[in-house]
Design goal:
Length: about 70
Amino acid sequence: MKIKIKVIPRSSANNLEVLKNGEFCARVTSPPEKGKANRKVIELLSRHLGVTKSRISITRGGSSSHKTVEILD
């Protein structure tokens, strides 16, 4: 399964919400440096979807605020 997610780094709290169009918006407290924000996004998705972090990978947009994430079966 692939999902699209918009990441807002350096937010005041870690939060994951589903938008009306089915995409996700992740607000993370981590800065967008050295993959810190990406790791936090994976952690939030893992908790929200109930899957292990190893099954989640960022396939597009590793250094962008708009990402495509794949959840492996």
